[in-house]
Amino acid sequence: MPDHDIQLIVTRVASEYPQLQISQLKVSHPADDAGLWFITGPDGFEIQIESSTGDFPFLMESSAHSERHNIGDIDATLAAIARELAIWERRQPHDPAG
């Protein structure tokens, strides 16, 4: 079993959304809070997940809109990622040739 809830999210997102990249904030000093993860994708899509412990609850926000959400479990997190990605994709211009 993973040590922290964020590890479940990283594993599931990598499996279910191979087009998305996940990275953790790189800090300069060990005392700094590295509890921020970025999920990025095509055309500037980004979700930020914040938790100083790496465990639920997470604070989530995305580039799809200005709302922030508190997320309390794995299923809600994955559903929110899918919803944010769908909102972002609907707002992107479509290539008429594609």
Order of helices and strands: HEEEEEH
What share of the residues lie within helices?
25-40%
**How many helical elements?**
2
| C-alpha-based Rg, rounded | 14 Å
List keywords for this structure.
2 helices; 98 residues; alpha+beta; globular
Which secondary structure elements does this structure contain, and how are they paired or packed?
Layout: H1 5-16, E1 21-24, E2 36-40, E3 46-50, E4 58-62, E5 68-71, H2 74-91
Antiparallel strand pairs: 1-2, 2-3, 3-4, 4-5
What do these coordinates show?
This protein is of the alpha+beta class and 98 residues long. The protein is built from two helices and five strands. It has helices at residues 5-16, 74-91; strands at 21-24, 36-40, 46-50, 58-62, 68-71. A five-stranded antiparallel β-sheet has the order 1-2-3-4-5, with helices on one face. The model has no long low-confidence stretch (mean pLDDT 88).
Quick summary:
With 98 residues, this protein is of the alpha+beta class. It contains two helices and five strands.
